[in-house]
Amino acid sequence: MALKNLRTAFPGKDERWYNTTIKALYRFTVEEIVDFLSQYAHFDENTVHFNNMQVVDDALKENNGVILVGGHFGSFHKLIVTMARKGYKNIAGISYQQNNQAASKFFVELRKEYVANELHTGGPSSDVKQSLQNNELLILLSDQDAGKKGVFVDFFNIPSSTPSGAANYNKTMGSPLIFFSAVKTANGYEANFEKIDTNNKSIEDIVQKYTFMLEQEIKKYPEQYFWVHKRWKTKKI
User: What is the value of pTM for the model shown?
Assistant: First the structure.
């Protein structure tokens, strides 16, 4: 699946590029999983360099919650851990609930040190609204195939069903919307934040904007994206 997605997103590359990128992808992914399972016991948050964090701080001052939108890209878990360790205790996140109750409890336990309010996909929207009313930092990873409920926007020049929750909550709650990413570099990790201008923009325009921003980051670090999911499963009719 990862190789198929890479070929789709980056057509025309030679076989050596695909194979090298796949190997780097699995190396990166395994390292991230091991760190996650060890609860980041050996992770030094000082290796994470924040760029433009003032954007988040200014948004929090509006006291209307903040929506941080990104994707399954880079070291996003380490960014969340670092933020929690540096005093951002009001982090909320929406995750998929595991079918296995034991597994679900296991992952919640692993995340509870840095995600203060864990919500689940498909849960009541009132929980999300309450989170924003409590001025929490709501983290949404909005890049997986959203089926028939998604908004179709271009992702690597392909119409792609994309979650629109971040855009919808921005419109209904008025909470600032900020795109974030965290990539591993030779010198540690670089975390970036950029506020999205949503004034007079449609839901589709907003979804396209943060999808395009994610795409630009992936192009710089293709080995740090979670290519193993079926990103283009739903076809536009």
Answer: 0.94
